[in-house]
Write a structure and sequence with these properties.
alpha/beta; lipid metabolism; 32% helix; 15% strand; eight-stranded mixed sheet; 258 residues; Acyl_Trfase/lysoPLipase; PNPLA_dom; NTE
């Protein structure tokens, strides 16, 4: 199906963090496939890094959904008291090898950049070569649920802590950038801020959005769906719903480009 994006030689894709809401990224990828839109380079944070890696690896949409449906978020065998975190993130390495058996960036079909946070020196770090699985795990290791991942003698955790919308690797490299942001901030009523948990979640969301706002606005095409805010970040029951929301929104967007 021909559309305006056919005129661009180098399309880049930015995938934000956002937990289960990141299944909207997979919905976007399905729509891209159907409308003949292909990204040459991908960058992602947290769940966006995982989706981006599967896309760069050439996995099908069904494979992507299966990955998130079958990879356990919480497994009592992965519980740890020896590390900072309830779940030992390193226990996921063998599960990931089913999808990434060569375990390196160079084996991917597309250029991929993933961001993680060095929690020792407070800097964000991009990974795009060498070992693949452990940087992916680091990018998605949300504290305090998942333990940090040690890479090159340093401890790394969720990329969204420092950079939830990692546009930087694609700047001046791609002539058209598609952004998918699933960390949605919409207006709340006073009744939605009745306790400390709701307030903490709102403040955290606002901080993340504030650090991403200018980069989100810099995209040539942005995909956002306010209805994703009703899906909990760790609510596995929301996988199909988030996927459908992302797919429907992307299809409507691409139809307007024809």
């Amino acid at each position: 199906m021909k559309n305006k994006l056919d005129n661009y030689k180098s399309i880049g894709l930015v995938l934000s963090g956002g937990g289960v809401r990141g299944m909207a990224h997979v919905g976007l990828l399905k729509a891209m496939e159907e409308f003949g839109v292909e990204a040459k380079s991908v960058t992602g944070s947290s769940v966006g890094a995982l989706v981006g890696a599967l896309y760069a690896n050439g996995n099908s949409i069904d494979d992507m959904l299966n990955f998130f449906k079958t990879t356990p978020l919480f497994n009592y065998q992965f519980l740890t008291i020896a590390k900072a975190g309830f779940i030992d993130t390193d226990k996921y390495v063998n599960l990931f090898k089913t999808y990434f058996p060569q375990d390196n960036f160079e084996s991917l079909q597309k250029e991929l950049h993933v961001v993680a946070t060095n929690i020792q020196d407070g800097n964000e770090v991009f990974f795009n070569s060498g070992e693949l699985i452990r940087p992916l795990l680091a990018s998605a290791a949300l504290p305090p649920v998942f333990s940090p991942v040690e890479l090159q003698g340093q401890l790394y955790a969720d990329g969204g802590i420092m950079n939830n919308f990692p546009l930087e690797p694609l700047e001046k490299k791609c002539d058209y950038i598609i952004g998918s942001n699933v960390s949605i901030i919409s207006k709340l009523e006073k009744k939605d801020l009745k306790n400390s948990f709701q307030l903490t979640g709102r403040v955290t969301g606002l901080m993340i959005y504030a650090s991403s706002k200018k980069k989100i606005e810099a995209c040539d095409l942005l995909l956002e769906s306010p209805s994703l805010e009703n899906i909990g970040m760790l609510d596995r029951k929301g996988i199909e719903k988030a996927f459908t929301i992302g797919y429907d929104n992307a299809c409507r967007t691409f139809e307007k480009l024809n």
